[in-house]
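Quick note —
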Amino acid sequence: MTDLRRKKPVRAKSLSTLAIHAGEEPDPTTGALTPPLHMSAAFRLPDFGPSLFDALTMESQQPPFAYARWGNPTARALEAKLAALEGGEAALALATGMAAVSALTFTFLKAGDHVIASEVCYAGSVELFGLHLPRQGIEVSLVDTSDPDQVRQALQPQTKLVYVETPANPILRISDIEAIAEIAHKAGALLAVDSTWATPCLQQPLALGADYVIHSATKYLNGHGDALGGVVVGPAAGIHRMRKEALVHLGGAISPFNAWLIMRGLATLPLRMARHSQSALEIAHFLDGHPAVSRVVYPGLDSHPHRDLVLGQMSAAGGMLTFQLAGGLGAAITLAERIRLFTYATSLGHARSLLFYYPTDLYVDAATYLSAAQKARIREWTGEGIVRVSVGLEDAEDLIADLDQALRARSAKGLVGPAAYAALKRIQARSAQETEE
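Predicted structure written out below.
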């Protein structure tokens, strides 16, 4: 006869074990090993008494379920697993990575406060900091967080939050989490780290002193490219405050189905990250010697400017790399046309390998929230443009062969594309000028 009693919570140190067991247990009614998917929007409330009031006011950190935007059993299971993987007290799962960033900032910042943030990070995040928070009366300093002195110099009496993304999207700058945590805490500020590119398998921000760690769960945590999600992990009291103030009021609730899909993906995260990292290193070495490539940036190469920090802070270098093409935009157009195993797409962390070209004039020069000095610093990493690569789970030799044939190819669009792009920019500039006049 099947024993359907609940097991005691899993206590393990290994990420591989936690990725499979944390937050999960056999269903107490059926014995099913796969966690159930709870798609209900509403739940039967407890009888009149303390539990009912807790469900309606969310006074406890795990109140009875009342409404799916406030909490859901599937999302709660995902939160337990993510908290265990990051070594945090609690986690809040949200609809997207940007919902996670927004929940953090709008919970802990108000008009008159000051935040220091990485000048290079995910586009949605840096645009939130550079464009939207100032409109709410929140002062923002965007700095190169790979230089702790810039963080220290940017501190103000009203600094409440330091926000770091490391490795930084898309240029792969690395920031010293431990050093910045010390700087932030001495000033009475919180430190939040977006660790999406590293995952808890390669980097543990909370253990290095961060207060909160953020992920776009859409990427590596899910791993299959089929579900949006985000998460913030940190102290239980702060996470509970975010749940009451940001999740309930701003509405970035994760779909239970997406939570279920991400939880499914997490079971293989340690294995996938090892494969991503191994293959990315092989591809980085190949590209580093290719005649069509002028520069490769990958944390696993000795040539990376922050290689010593990588060795001390990360257990492996991850699945993301960038490279510059000797042939510039024309070569990038040809590359996008001729790849076969790689897919030309902007996301990352999938089983399928992806790449995308970022022209510096479009993604850096046009950023109104960056100073001329900041743009010049970023150009030291990007040149006129970079190809960002998300190395998937295919065989590394097959991926190298695909890149090699595409890099050696020539195409008509690649020949005429740069001139057409320059003409389009002139037309857009003239149109903008006429609109201003």
